[in-house]
Amino acid sequence: MTMLPLLADRIIGQPLLITTEKLEVILGVLGGRIGIEDVFQAPAPDANRFAGRESQRGPYRVTSNGIAIVPIIGSLVNRGAYIGASSGLTSYEGISEQLKKASTDSEVRGILLDMNTPGGEAAGTFEVSNLIMEIRKKKPVVAMVADMACSAGYAIASAASQIYTTQTGMMGSIGVVWVHFDRSLQMQNEGIKPTILHAGARKAEGNPFEPLSRVTKANFQAEIEKLHSLFIETVLDGRPSLKEADLRATEAAVFMGQDAVKIGLADGVSTFDRVLEVMSQQITKLPAAPAGYESNPKEKKAMTNQPAAEAASGTDQAALDAARADGVKAGRTEERARIASILALPEAKGRQALAIELATGSDMSAEQCSKMLAKAAEEKPAAGASSFYDAMAANGGKPNVATSGGDAQPKDRAQANIERQAKRFAAMV
């Protein structure tokens, strides 16, 4: 099934924030397949593939110091998941998805918009602009107009923290265009006479089978003016230094390089590499995570699990050391009690080696060790082992083992292991 009718439906009879030159190209690409004479086909533009690397966390490239490069390339449509890359179109929903993931990616500390777009559909434009306005409160967002950011493209760029362009970069076209095709004469020549039945006086407004009436033109013009005002308000929100009268005075003209800077549409003329370099230098001076911003739920959990003494800023180091010492002391006391209770278990008798191994070589509780010891077969005691265990059990699980000297000598390997473990425990208590 061809997608050209769907594509044509997005272009014809819809308000567009796009340059007229690009509109001519799109209509030429659609060609005679939808009843418009073919003009030429333009190659689809592509994003920068030399800066950064493909991120493992999102559909964008990211530099080594945490700058996500989000491409905004080609003509823009609201929801264009069905459109292939070869068409040269990009969807607002795809751009938004990249921006959302970059904004919550803890690896990303700033976002660079790589822009080369003449604009596109009005629907969806302002939602992307609003999203960027929110993101830039948390992370810097810079727009680099290496080629073009016109109409809807400029509405998006204007929401960035800063805008830079090249000497030949084009931007502006702050206006709205709407196209209607009157096929009435064509159909008359072909002997076709359509009949349109409808309920509601405006239901069939703008249909291609009859010329636009004066009232219909006025209605559509009113909608276009509303969109134009919304466009201007969006630009002013992102760049409050501009004035509404000045934006209207541009009459949707396109400005190149330094001319765009002079009237306030851009902040400077540079190159993609230079902007990326300066942004990298600035980004290293920023905190890894902006204050009050949750960049990653896992990181937030890790922070909340830190001891309060460590998380508090300005806490006296001596107090921290004392708190740590108290924690270590309490831990040792608890561990001693656990080991003693295991060694004093009735089930440990006849299973001395296993009891000592469980007590000193695991984190199991006395209850868990009791069950395991009860299921284990009794060991064949080595000479002196029973007297050793009896003495330890009688002492509440605390062995009375000399760390040096003494007449007692291990009789075999099993006894040596018991005494080695006992000495290890003695060192702990």
UniProtKB/TrEMBL annotation:
GO terms for molecular function: peptidase activity. InterPro entries: ClpP/crotonase-like_dom_sf (IPR029045), Peptidase_S49 (IPR002142), Protein_C (IPR033855). It comes from Hyphomicrobium denitrificans (strain ATCC 51888 / DSM 1869 / NCIMB 11706 / TK 0415). Coiled coil: none annotated. Residues 136-282 form the Peptidase S49 domain. Residues 289-318, 390-418 are annotated as: Disordered. One of its GO terms (biological process) is proteolysis. It holds the Pfam family Peptidase_S49. Belongs to the peptidase S49 family. This is Peptidase S49.
